[in-house]
């Protein structure tokens, strides 16, 4: 389409001018002269160090001895406090709608950072129950050490429980950047807003999505590819804050690929949801939701070698 | 099985000889004395810089000021041109079936690089509509900045729209290496060949697959785990170039886990496909495809504590 | 909830004391004074080098010439032997239940490393059939080079076939760390324990899970989102070693999102399992398992613009 003789003469200057004209014309995907956004790479570094504080000795390259634990912990905490406060300060500057002064924002970032770090022991209490549920629930697990070192679930739930505390303190951007980092590594998307009880376990993780306003009880076990999602309504942004995702009560098991939808949907305690089920309304406690016996037909294929799948039959 | 006493004596030399003998015997998975293949790490570096050019200020560690924008853009473009031309040149050398001279290949690589970079403003036009669709379609999105910085969708669609332009210019290997990089990071596999309209949005992304010959209209919204795929036919490589993947018309919504199959399958405009549906034939415009009411049975489990799932009932 | 005036005064010392008290109180997720666990980053480095040995010339930044192949291979093998032996030694120390001496463990680690590396030619034989199956089975594949360089499947199956050999030699932790690394990069979770025949291919990979005691025949083709999993039984850890995952015989095709469950479930040779099917019992050879024609209802939506999905209808 383009005159090739002409195109080779295009210089960097011309390409630059075309892009600058696009920057001027197309808004919404530029971020110029703006407040400094929180840094993704800094937040990832902080998340890695928070995991080291939560699981001492597991994610360090060298052995941690009890005798050095106090010093090592203090050094790590000191480093995390400063870096986290900087990122929270940037996120508060970014969302500063009420015109707080620079000093007020800095003070607020400092306070939020300390309050957040005070939650670490409580987060550890919950994570200990998750590691227990993972080990007890998976015969393939050789040891609790294997679960913590190798299972993507532990990383995903630890990051979500951290991000959830920042979410509760109305820190913008950072919680989601944290959980999307874990999502990228584990394939599981746990929104920072979701309320998740104790003894949670998701085996394999990959493809599982838990939406912002989910409410998950204690002792819930799920598998890969489970979606706890909202109806797609034309309301869009007007639905912000409304409960849009399901409630899963205690001791529920949800098998691979099941989709449970809607803010009013409640899966009663002790229920089991079969694989690939699409559930859009509530079921009472102790329900077993399985495909009907007549859902599939099993036919004899005419030709053994053929892998042709003719769904027109 | 092996004599352990003997094995410990095996030296590096012996292991090397065994491997060399395997390299000589088993073909197809060696690449020796061949043309230099495009470098994965170089292509990833180029993709990262192209994202910085598409979304100025969003993926840079420091603030970009309008006053420096021209200089910064020119420097980045200059760097990208040289590196991209080198990789395209390698890919043309690799696929050089008609015996073009080294000089012709280099000239062709140069021209293709410039023509590709001229498309960046058009790609930005489309990405602006995608970011808008993502923000409007997700009540969990706090701001457009959050969407661009944290949502895996933006990265996946930006890389696909870049790779699609290279695919249209018959650049081998590089488009797929680019989209597989995004696939690895986002869990979504958008083939460079797929035609995708404006205002596209895939929420959560993870597990979604869009095949090479898909044709997706404007204002299409999809969720995680959606598969737009081909029938698996015994034809294999003989089907290259044939339309094998579905057509999705404008304003269609496809829920989590739905699978839509086949090159003749057309989902009519304005339709909604429910979660986990397996659709193998066309549906007219404004269709609502949902599981039949009798698909599932909900039973009362005999024992609340038991998580045993007996599908033999 | 907290007194904010007080919280800002909390010092690093106080936060440290809170965490130390949590470390003392909450067990199971600390690893202190313990044996040095195998290093994740070292294992990833070893896996990368093993891929270079399996596919010479494909994952190197420079061209490998036949004339240098012997020297390059010997250097790489020499480096891998030492590093792998160190990690296997750590894993044997970690699991040393019978009280073997340090010398015995070191000798055993050395021998296991050499025996494992002797398997590389056999692993290459299998991988060559996998690359062939991938190329033949996917019309979107431009060349075998593209398959090896860009397809996540090749990386995932290569790492599983390596890890499976370590699993057979009862090496703890390392096999799972290897496959979880590939899982994180490809979205596919192939357990090191699974027995997988020749000419295996999983298109797109993302979301597919193959459990520990699966038995997969030759010429099996699968897609993204397939789950070959265990029933979730209350037995938990007591089921270790029991066959809990399905058997897939030769020449079977399993479409996207299908879930096949249970240790007694056998999918007979030459069968095809449709997308999103949930199969919990055996099917005879040459079966075609598809959703029943009455599974879905297709309705006309009242309002074309509306994307409201009312499943209460």
Short description:
Chain A is an alpha/beta fold and 313 residues long.
Which helices and strands occur, and which strands form pairs?
The structure is a homotrimer of 313-residue chains.
Chain A (H helix, E strand, L loop, with lengths): L3 H4 L4 H14 L14 H15 L11 H29 L7 H17 L1 H18 L6 H7 L1 H17 L5 H13 L2 E2 L4 E2 L4 E2 L6 E2 L4 E2 L4 E2 L4 E3 L17 E2 L4 E2 L4 E3 L4 E2 L4 E2 L4 E2 L7 E5 L4 E5 L13
Parallel strand pairs in A: 1-4, 2-5, 3-6, 4-7, 5-8, 6-9, 7-10, 8-11, 9-12, 10-13, 12-14
Helix pairs in contact in A: 3-4, 3-8, 3-9, 4-5, 6-8, 7-8, 8-9
Features:
313 residues, five-stranded parallel β-sheet, globular, homotrimer
Descriptive report:
3 copies of one chain form a homotrimer. Chain A is an alpha/beta fold and 313 residues long. Chain A is built from 9 helices and 15 strands. In chain A, the strands form 3 sheets. In chain A, strands 1-4-7-10-13 form a 5-stranded parallel sheet. The first copy, chain A, has a 5-stranded parallel sheet with strand order 3-6-9-12-14. In chain A, helix 3 runs antiparallel to helix 4. Chain A is globular. Chains B and C meet through helix 2, helix 9, strand 13 and strand 14 of B and helix 4, helix 5, helix 6, helix 7 and strand 15 of C.
């Amino acid at each position: 389409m383009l005159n090739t003789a002409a195109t080779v003469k295009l210089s960097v200057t011309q390409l630059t001018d075309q892009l600058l004209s696009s920057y001027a014309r197309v808004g919404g995907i530029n971020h110029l002269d703006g407040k400094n956004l929180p840094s993704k790479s800094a937040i990832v570094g902080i998340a890695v160090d928070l995991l080291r504080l939560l699981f001492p000795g597991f994610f360090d390259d060298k052995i941690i001895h009890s005798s050095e634990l106090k010093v090592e912990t203090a050094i790590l905490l000191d480093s995390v406090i400063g870096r986290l406060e900087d990122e929270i300060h940037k996120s508060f500057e970014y969302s500063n709608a009420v015109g707080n002064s620079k000093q007020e924002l800095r003070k607020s970032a400092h306070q939020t950072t300390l309050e957040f770090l005070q939650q670490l022991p409580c987060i550890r209490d919950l994570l200990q129950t998750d590691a227990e549920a993972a080990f007890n629930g998976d015969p393939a697990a050789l040891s609790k050490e294997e679960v913590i070192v190798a299972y993507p679930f532990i990383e995903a739930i630890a990051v979500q429980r951290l991000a959830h505390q920042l979410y509760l303190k109305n820190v913008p951007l950072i919680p989601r950047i944290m959980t999307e980092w874990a999502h990228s590594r584990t394939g599981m998307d746990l929104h920072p807003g979701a309320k998740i009880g104790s003894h949670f376990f998701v085996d394999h993780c990959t493809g599982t999505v838990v939406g912002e306003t989910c409410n998950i009880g204690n002792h819930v076990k799920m598998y890969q590819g489970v979606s706890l999602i909202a109806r797609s309504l034309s309301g869009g942004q007007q639905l912000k804050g409304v409960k849009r995702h399901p409630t899963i009560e205690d001791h529920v098991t949800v098998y691979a690929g099941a989709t449970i939808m809607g803010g009013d949907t409640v899966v009663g305690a002790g229920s089991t949801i079969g694989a690939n089920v699409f559930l859009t309304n509530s079921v009472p406690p102790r329900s077993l939701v399985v495909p009907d016996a007549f859902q599939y037909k099993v036919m004899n294929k005419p030709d053994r070698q053929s892998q042709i799948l003719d769904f027109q039959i």
